Amino acid sequence: MNVLIAGGAGYIGSHCVRQVAAAGHRPVVIDNLVFGHREAVAPDVPFYEANLGDEAAVGKILVDEKIDIVMHFAAYIFVGESVQEPMKYYFNNVVSTLQLLRTMHSKGVKKFVFSSTAATYGIPEKMPITEDSPTNPINPYGRTKLDVEHALHAFARAYGLSAAVFRYFNASGASEDGAIGEDHSPETHLIPLAIGAATGQRPPLKLFGGDYPTPDGTCLRDYIHVDDLSRAHIAAFDKLAEPGKVFTWNLGTGTPVSVLEIIRAVEKVTGKKVPYTIAPRREGDPPALYADSTKAQRELGWKIKYHDIESLVASAWNWHSKHPNGYGK
Ligand code: UFG
């Protein structure tokens, strides 16, 4: 199948591009390179530098490349910034996505894969989180993702769109060969910050909150390897043959891992100490967030390869040691 990957030069998108090709499909990338890295996409993959909201440009790509499925990873992801600058998030994450969907509708492309987030659940009442848990985002980032999910349900009913919605937990790690990996600017994610602290390239880690009601007092999260995550997306392609349906799947391992456990894994894998100080809690951080992803495993035949946190951190370290300055910008 011909697969248009919006945001294919970003962290998760670029890993998905490679998995789409590995599964025998033909990836085509559109990315405006605001956050993406051109180097993250192999030179033989068709690449369009354009905005999703550019309906003429996107429409032409859909037709010229005979696109069957659109996968959408091109969103802003900084929770704190979404509180400060919600306008930016609503326009980029909601308006541009609606423009993309309108273009797809006008060109008769009816299959859509959407990257959503565990942030749609807000502060969940029970753990692990199943897909039918109430959605109640506590920041504009999570809200924009949920707004798009609601639009997908309406478009499925009205226009026969079929969509796969994936709610990610903590996407982490890097490709097994160390060729591509995580390079955000600014970086806010725990694993790259802890690795940077260990190597001395970044300041000592600030551990946000050591007094949570968890076994070691630090937050519990569900770290899912980016290639495991990508493979689930491709496994969903067959489901999209049925018109007018929206599927929702959590993507996590189901294993809660604390911040201190991540620090210990980074120390073991790198052989270096992670200097850190205990800082105040970060606003909006729930004590624990981990997935029940049995639905994705059952319905997609999806298998998690990176169950153990050390192997996941080792893949991040492999990328980092080969690319100490990320993609070099
Ligand atoms: N943490 C620190 N110090 C840091 C960075 C993070 O202690 O410098 C802690 C956080 O408090 C949290 C854990 O490490 O307990 C993981 O934090 P990340 O920022 O790596 O990830 P989050 O769980 O906050 O965010 C992830 C995704 C978001 C998504 C959110 C909710 O990256 O896009 O899950 O689903 F919105």
Describe this structure in words.
This protein is α/β, with parallel strands linked by helices. The longest helix is centred in the N-terminal third of the chain and has 22 residues, at 86-107. It has 10 helices and 13 strands. The protein has a 7-stranded parallel β-sheet with strand order 3-2-1-4-5-6-11, sandwiched between helices. The chain has 2 domains: 2-172 and 223-251, NAD(P)-binding Rossmann-like Domain (Rossmann fold), CATH 3.40.50.720; 190-222 and 254-290 and 305-322, UDP-galactose 4-epimerase, domain 1, CATH 3.90.25.10. The site of uridine-5'-diphosphate-4-deoxy-4-fluoro-alpha-D-galactose (UFG) has 20 residues, from helix 6 and strand 8.
How far is the N terminus from the C terminus?
Answer: 33 Å
What ligands can be seen in this structure? uridine-5'-diphosphate-4-deoxy-4-fluoro-alpha-D-galactose
Q: Report the radius of gyration as a whole number of Å.
A: 19 Å
How many helices in DSSP terms? 10
Summarize the main sheet. 7 strands, parallel
Provide the helix percentage: 25-40%
Low-confidence stretches: none
Beta-strand percentage? 15-25%
Query: What is the CATH architecture term of the largest domain?
Result: 3-Layer(aba) Sandwich
Order of helices and strands: EHEEHEHHEHEEHEEEHEEHEHH
The figure for the number of domains is 2
Enumerate the strands of the largest sheet in spatial order, edge to edge or round the barrel: 3-2-1-4-5-6-11
* CATH top level label of the largest domain: Alpha Beta
What is the residue-mean pLDDT, rounded to a whole number? Answer: 96
Q: CATH superfamily membership of the largest domain, which one?
A: NAD(P)-binding Rossmann-like Domain
What's the total number of strands?
13
Structural class, judged by helices and strands? alpha/beta
CATH topology of the largest domain: Rossmann fold
